[in-house]
Amino acid sequence: FRTSGLPTDIIIEVGEVSFHLHKFPLLSRSGVMERRIAEASKEGDDKCLIQISDFPGGDKTFELVAKFCYGVKLELTASNVVCLRCAAKHLEMTEEYGEGNLISQTGKFFNQVVFKSWKYSIKALQCCDEVLKYADEFNITKKCIESLAMRALADPNSFVEYGGPMQSPGGSVLWNGISTGARREDTSSDWWYEDASMVSFALFKRLITLMDSRGIREEIVAGSLTYYTRKYLPVLKRRRHSGSSSITPLSTGSVLSEEEQKHLLEEIQELDLPCMQKGLLPTKFFVDMLIIAKILKASPSCIENLEKRIGRQLDQATLEDLVMPSFSHTVETLYDVDSVQRILDHFLSWDHTMPVGASSSCSSVDDGNLNESSQSMTAVAKLIDGYLAEVAPDANLKLPKFQALAASVPDYARLLDDGLYRAIDIYLKHHPWLAEKEREDLCRLLDCQKLSTEACTHAAQNERLPLRIIVQVLFIEQLQLKASVAECLPVLGSLVGRSRKLGSDGFSGESTKGGWETAVRENQDLKVGMDKMRMRVCELEKECSKMRQEIEKLDKTTKGGGAFGSGSKTWENVSKKLGFGMKLKSHQMDSAQKVSSLKSNNENVKIEKLKDVKERQEKY
Fold first, then answer.
1. Closest CA to 124 of 148, 105, 95, 101
2. What SS3 class is residue 260?
3. How many Å separate Cα 42 from the centre of its chain?
4. What does the pLDDT look like over 170-190, one tens digit per residue?
5. Does residue 167 sit within a domain?
6. CATH number at residue 113
7. 109: helix, strand or coil
8. Whole-model pTM?
9. Based on the domain organization, do 304 and 344 belong to the same domain?
10. Which H or E run includes 49?
11. What ranges does the record list as Polar residues composition bias (predicted)?
12. pLDDT tens across 7-27, in order?
């Protein structure tokens, strides 16, 4: 700055750097420098000293400002215009101190260049981090964010630099980018994710919040948040499935420290955007964040909030999401069952209650008629049963913890208890040291009436189950068999009635060819129906025989004078102990009488059918 040949008369110290300058160029362009020089000159020193401890952009920016004061033309760019405008505002370099002053020039550059380009707006927003206090004070940050939000809402294909390469109808890329009727490649709605992730999270949060308020689709905002999180939390990125997203975050130049990652994680989970509340973010996203929070030893409130978010949309989770390893040094289990228990409790607290007057057993309720809450509860019940089966082989999983998680699911949520039975069976298999009382306590969670036929068959032959449960399953099978026989009797009666009606009314009046064909067809249908009934009766006889063998087998396993007695009174004692109030002998007699009646009816129907057919043939 000594090109004028005049000796300097002022020293400006910016931080640790000293600038030897002249007073006149500075005071003629800046109101602040005019006042500071006047104050320093009152002390009477020939060369005054001014110290500036906190200058926007530091000594490098002040050097550019000084050059501008000396008449040097500055080359404004998106990288330096933010600091220069903050410095110009800070020094009050208005038009009052010269036409075309620095405030005016930087303002024009923002309006004509920066705010008209997505790329320059992103670059300027990045620079706002360096002078955030001044950028916020002079509304530079706000204007950059508004510019980006406006352009994100617009069609990305309208941007030359981000619309993809120009292509001719034949597919060749034009070298000059001039529009000649060629088409641009379509750009997806996530084109801006990588650019937006270059700024700090404080600015990124303000950006997506403004985008959400301006009406951009919530799933797009949720996608950008997922992208940002996976980019700066490498552990979460490694857990991501290869096919879960169409975008792969680019590697960053600097890796955040564990403390920075923990701080970022806690900031993300505190967001209160609509996309965080409506389930637009997948449950796996929050599960991964929960795992990282435990690895990084985040605050208890952070972990609790993440568990609440997972519980809020637990019905959207998969079994893989819940299988979280345990990171506690005090717990010996392989999986974090305690966390899943808390997540389930949070789900149950979100107004997922059984409608008033509903039955405790929903085995006869059609899935299509369930309301939304019940459907969610049913999905969670299946998920928890699957999770119990997954963690059951863990030898360190204590019975009270397994039992508590299984009992947390309301009874009405399970349409069938097959999943719970499978989980209990696996647990008993891998915990053979359990006492008989502990086995019985665990199996009390089962409702044998809600087991499918296949599950009942397996349970009746399962040696790991307590004897009381096996007998209860066999008794329920007997009741189901009785119900099946009772259902067959009305069907048989209707077939017999149709045959008699056909014999009395089929040929009244003059016989016709059409009437004869109808009679033959009815007789054929009757024959098919009788054959089916005969096969069903045989099946029922076999099932009765099998049930008797099972009862005899159980009777032999108990000694005389034991808990179930001996001889013909065994089943009566079992019935009374279980509270069903029925006797085996009466069941057998009823079944035998009904089977005999079915056979007799079959023979009578066949004789009547042959007589009717013969009479009709002769009459015709």
1. 148
2. helix
3. 71
4. 444 444 444 445 444 445 667
5. no
6. 3.30.710.10
7. helix
8. 0.68
9. no
10. strand 48-52
11. 591-604
12. 888 899 998 899 999 889 999
